From TrEMBL:
Entry's Gene Ontology BP terms: lipid metabolic process
SUPFAM superfamilies: YutG-like
Gene3D superfamilies according to UniProt: PgpA-like
Protein name, entry field: Phosphatidylglycerophosphatase A
Domain named YutG/PgpA: residues: 18-150
GO molecular function list: phosphatidylglycerophosphatase activity
Organism, as annotated: Paenibacillus ihbetae
Lineage start: Bacteria, Bacillati, Bacillota, Bacilli, Bacillales
One matching Pfam family: PgpA
Length: 165
């Protein structure tokens, strides 16, 4: 498996790396004045390079596609078709992705899940199909990529345990 396969699957569902990177940029630009969209794209690809992220993405996309073809057993089929608000499995899977770069990803995911910015909003509005899992997975990937950038912030390295500064 590879980042290329993950990118291809996302692209097939109408999501580009640049669209996810744009969300990352919006989350991090105020903390990193010199941040570029290219750096955000690199961070998204780094997140997609994690095998556990790939597996989660592949599973979520497969479930969305099976629901579109009406191949899921009831009541799961109806739950997916209606994007049942209390379902929560989609958020649970996405939270696994957010945690790969620490707890800061959790707060970013919560913000993105509530605000639904960028391509997340488009997916949530049922763009050409069922995206019960994909909208949350994109938010999780963006949150993790944002967290990765935050952790790599050179200013954060200046803090040390026990320092009075």
């Amino acid at each position: 498996m590879s980042v290329d396969l993950a990118e291809s699957m996302l692209s097939r569902r109408g999501v580009s790396i640049t669209a996810i990177a744009d969300i990352v940029f919006q989350l991090q630009q105020r903390y990193h004045p010199g941040l570029t969209l290219e750096q955000c794209e690199d961070s998204v690809r780094a997140v997609l390079g994690k095998r556990e992220v790939q597996y989660t993405l592949f599973t979520g996309i497969a479930l969305d596609e099976l629901a579109e073809r009406k191949l899921l057993p009831q009541p799961l089929q109806s739950i997916m078709e209606n994007d049942e608000p209390l379902y929560g499995v989609d958020e649970t899977m996405a939270l696994g992705v957010t945690s790969i770069y620490g707890m800061i990803g959790l707060t970013s995911f919560g913000y993105l899940d509530k605000e639904k910015i960028g391509v997340i909003e488009i997916l949530n509005e049922k763009m050409d199909g069922i995206h019960v899992f994909l909208d949350d997975l994109v938010a999780g990937i963006a949150a993790a990529a944002s967290s990765r950038i935050a952790h790599n912030n050179p200013d954060a390295a200046s803090y040390s345990a026990g320092s009075d500064e």
